[in-house]
Amino acid sequence: MKLPRTQLIPIITDILNSCIELEKAGVSATGPNKILRETLHFIWEVSDIKKYDDKRLRSEKGFLDIRKNLAYDHPIPMKIILSKLKSTYPVEQESVEAVLQKYLRHGGVLITKSEHDLLRDMGLASKMPSDWDGEDIFARYKKAEISIKDMGI
Questions:
Q1: Residue 128, domain extent
Q2: Domain count of the chain?
Q3: pTM over 0.70
Q4: pLDDT per residue over 86-145, tens digit each?
Q5: Per-position DSSP letters for the chain, written without gaps between them
């Protein structure tokens, strides 16, 4: 049985606060960040739609390529999402929900591995363009001229 996303927010908030507490206690951020990444992936991103589902947002070229040549990419790099989630402590459910709905609503996008390489080559693998307005979640793709198709999720 899948829980509705509204019921996932308190669970994610508790895990997020626990991870921040670990960091404040001196634990290297690597472990807590990995916990958060996995939590968001398995509890939030693929709770309704599987990683390589046909309904997942894809690049235009991603529709033409086979699965083994696709990369799962976050429109907003996870490093930025984690920073936004951890920006206030203790973190409240409302702020977690706002960040997830704004920046991780669709989860990851399927792009080709060559498109993924292009983002890396442009210096956009883990950051947004320098002129990012803070709103357009697809700004990295637009900068790299990667067209994303919405399949109605």
A1: 5-149
A2: 1
A3: yes
A4: 998 899 999 999 999 999 988 999 999 999 999 999 999 999 999 999 999 999 999 999
A5: -PPPHHHHHHHHHHHHHHHHHHHHTT--THHHHHHHHHHIIIIIITSSS-TT-TTS-EETGGGTS-GGGEEEE-SS-HHHHHHHHTSSSSPPHHHHHHHHHHHSTT--EEEEHHHHHHHHHTT-SSS--TT--SS-TTHHHHHTT--EE----
